[in-house]
Amino acid sequence: MRKLLFILFLLPIFSSAQNRQRRPPRDSADIFLKEYNKLLEQNIDSFYKSPRVMELIKKRIKLANSRNNYAGNILFFDICHSDYTKFNTAISSLGFSPLN
User: Fold this and answer.
1) Does residue 62 belong to any structural domain of this protein?
2) Is 84:99 a contact under the CB 8 Å cutoff?
3) Rounded distance, CA 45 to CA 41, Å?
4) Under a CB-based contact definition with an 8 Å cutoff, are residues 75 and 59 in contact?
5) What is the pLDDT of residue 11?
6) Residue 79: domain span
7) Residue 1 pLDDT > 80, yes or no?
8) Residue 24 region, left (φ>0) first, then alpha (ψ -120 to 50), else beta?
């Protein structure tokens, strides 16, 4: 119980210690950077909210959900049906054990 009270006592101290004081812009470079960040944020938001981008994102999500782990099946069948004789002779001359 003492540990819990101690943690509850320290929690506000640590949370307030993490808050960074925002200082007002001091010179023209800080003002420029603040305005630049606002403009960049507005442009990024308008880009992602544009109809063409939203349509492309929806199509990408639809296609990604519809593939049903197709790549895993191809990899499995490729390994099962591959002929490693040329590869095995090449690596056995180097001292490695053959595959399959």
Assistant:
1) yes
2) yes
3) 6
4) no
5) 66
6) 27-87
7) no
8) beta
